[in-house]
Design brief:
Strand order of the largest sheet: 1-17-18-21-16-22
Strand content: 15-25%
Number of helices: 15
Radius of gyration: 31 Å
CATH superfamily of the largest domain: P-loop containing nucleotide triphosphate hydrolases
CATH topology of the largest domain: Rossmann fold
Number of domains: 3
Structural class: alpha/beta
CATH class of the largest domain: Alpha Beta
Distance between the termini: 49 Å
Length: 517
């Protein structure tokens, strides 16, 4: 269910083999023209009869609708729409080329001449003439501008409610609330539709012992089995599965390594990516490479599609600026895509967001803090990697996650994930006191020697520290005269921020000092 931007290339069911009944009654357009099926005939005075001259616009529009294609607006902005296809309750986003191919299949499905009568004359239109006129004029119709005349698709899309979550499998609809987990027949979708990428292409049976799954054991390992930290991870999984977004409380989930990390060589290997990767088996996920992400690009979110439920920023680096995501966390998304229509996502329909980072993102200020929900993963697995060829997860669990899983293990996995969703409904996002986020942030903003030094100072609040003497001592011990006091002062500011303090700089009798508050 992960998005690789190829969702337009999949097979659209029933198009090639779909049987569409032709419009078998001629329709008078004017005194000199009539339509039959998707073709238009005009009167030829020299021949004294009607001749096939082109394609019938309304006929093309109707046959496209009969084939299940529409335009759909994703927000209140009626200037931008996308093209969609619906079969039963399943919805796909498509391109104009897909629609053209479907209509071409319809035309190519003509097995014999068109035979009919109009105003006393019999007509026998050869198959080759039918195909030829379509190929000559199809370019008029199959483009974004003309296709805006399609009927509007207004069937509601199945979405989670504030206190209820839905997951669609091949064989059932799963409904999750704080009171329990129920499976229902797919016909319970009624007048709702589901994006194809959001339907899990597996059968499912709920099992009560989901906490015995290999994935549940993995979750316990990466949180050291510490109750409040494990509860944090379970609530995070449930929060991200719950496809309901409250813009007033919009938070990004951020996964870090717990281990104190060298500022130049972040460790990794703790299982952050596996947690994010596992969510794609439940929710439609768009993965964005954090190292290559360019916040100045118009197309920075072009991989996001209308069916995206979760956005995963993978392996962000120290230059990743979290504040640039504020708008998406509160005001919705505007998605510009190369060669495809732009679309917007309303705030309440926004996908959730998870960030896996080897570098600590800035969380200075209340705005940053309240939009970040942080979990540190311990080094349970990474500590077993010595030379780089070890596979500790596979060794412990006896298999690679999702590879060669039996149907029972898949059922255990999904049951555990839905248990997490129920846990989230009961408890909300669970927080715990992080262990090394502040220290790692300081290391990555400053220098390992400075961190070791500043932690030994045992700084206190509301005490004056005279900077000239302190700076000179630090400069002499670690760097020499090339080290600038300006850098030292900036590092003191980073230290203050890492402690959730503020720092004031002032002078006493001309002697500069700083004081933490």
């Amino acid at each position: 269910m992960v998005n690789n931007n190829s969702h337009f290339l999949g097979n659209i069911p029933l198009i090639e083999n779909q049987i569409i009944e032709r419009i078998i009654k001629p329709i008078t357009l004017t005194e000199s023209s009539f339509a039959y099926d998707i073709f238009e005939f005009k009167f030829d005075k020299q021949l004294g009869r009607y001749e096939l001259k082109g394609l019938y616009h309304q006929g093309i529009r109707e046959i496209i609708k009969t084939l299940g294609f529409y335009k759909r607006y994703l927000s209140n902005d009626k200037n931008n729409s996308i093209l969609v296809h619906q079969v039963d309750n399943i919805l796909d986003e498509v391109t104009d080329e897909v629609i053209k191919t479907a209509v071409l299949n319809y035309v190519d499905g003509t097995k014999e001449e068109l035979k009919f009568s109009y105003r006393g004359n019999d007509y026998n239109i050869p198959i080759e003439a039918i195909k030829n006129i379509f190929l000559k004029q199809s370019c008029i119709f199959f483009n974004q501008k003309w296709l805006q005349q399609l009927s509007e698709h207004t069937t509601p899309i199945l979405r989670d409610l504030k206190d209820k979550s839905f997951v669609v499998f091949k064989n059932c609809l799963v409904e999750i609330t704080k009171n329990g987990i129920k499976t229902k027949p797919l016909n319970q979708l009624l007048n709702r539709c589901v994006w194809r990428e959001q339907q899990i292409q597996r059968d499912f049976e709920y099992l009560e012992n989901g906490n015995e799954s290999e994935y549940a054991k993995f979750c316990k390992n990466v949180t050291s089995g510490i109750e409040n930290r494990t509860a944090c991870l379970l609530s995070i999984i449930g929060y991200l599965i719950h496809n309901h977004f409250d813009p007033s409380k919009g938070q990004a989930i951020i996964l870090y390594d717990e281990a104190i990390t060298d500022s130049k060589t972040p460790q990794g290997g703790t299982g952050k990516g596996l947690i994010a990767n596992s969510l794609k088996w439940v929710r439609m996920t768009t993965k964005i490479d954090g190292k290559m992400f360019d916040p100045t690009s118009r197309f920075k979110f072009e991989l996001v599609c209308p069916s995206t439920q979760l956005i995963w920023f993978d392996e962000t680096n120290k230059d990743f600026v979290f504040v640039m995501l504020f708008s998406q966390l509160t005001d919705g998304w505007t998605i510009e895509r190369k060669y495809l229509p732009q679309f917007t996502i309303k705030p309440e329909d926004s996908p959730k967001m998870i960030i896996c980072s080897n570098s600590i993102l800035s969380n200075e200020g209340s705005s940053n803090k309240r939009r970040q929900h942080i979990l540190e993963l311990n080094n349970y697995y990474s500590s077993q990697i010595i030379i780089g060829t070890e596979t500790p997860i596979q060794d412990e669990h006896g298999l690679l996650f999702a590879e060669n899983w039996t149907q029972k293990e898949w059922n255990l996995f999904y049951s555990f994930m839905f248990d997490c969703t129920q846990f989230y409904f009961e408890n909300g996002l669970v927080s715990y006191e992080s262990k090394n986020v502040a220290t790692n942030y300081l290391k990555q903003k400053t220098n390992d020697d400075f961190v070791n030094w500043v932690l030994e100072q045992n700084y206190e609040q509301n005490v004056r520290y005279f900077s000239n003497e302190i700076f000179k001592d630090f400069q002499t011990t670690y760097f020499g005269e090339s080290f600038q006091k300006r850098t030292f002062i900036n590092w003191i500011k980073f230290y203050s921020a890492s402690r959730n303090w503020t720092v004031d700089f002032s002078k006493s009798n001309g002697n500069p000092y700083y004081i933490f508050k």
